[in-house]
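SAMPLE LOG
Freezer: B-3
Tube label: C17
Construct: single chain, 111 aa
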Amino acid sequence: MHQQRIAALQRFAGVSIAFLDQAPFLRQVMNGHDGPLLALSLLVGQGRHGKDDIAEAFAQAVCPAKYCGAVGDSPDLAMLAIEHMRDHSASSSDRRALTLDTHQGAAGTVC
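STRUCTURE (predicted):
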């Protein structure tokens, strides 16, 4: 779904999807391109996959390739989550319950 949305923007020559643990595998997809390649993971954070597995795959790329990190590391993700919850909350009282803990930068609800 994300692949199709990004491809529809027509900002890139091609948009591919790849996985670490199932086909199509990241290394196979990377080896099938002449590059240059940019990658963004839909992981919630770097963790082991982003720090080790993806970084290793990009270090072994056969063409110019850059890993741009995980979307979960974006500081804008908390606000995006809050906006999404506001847009999809059932009632106005649900929307008022949404808050942002500015001290810790975490989204949450007030009970």
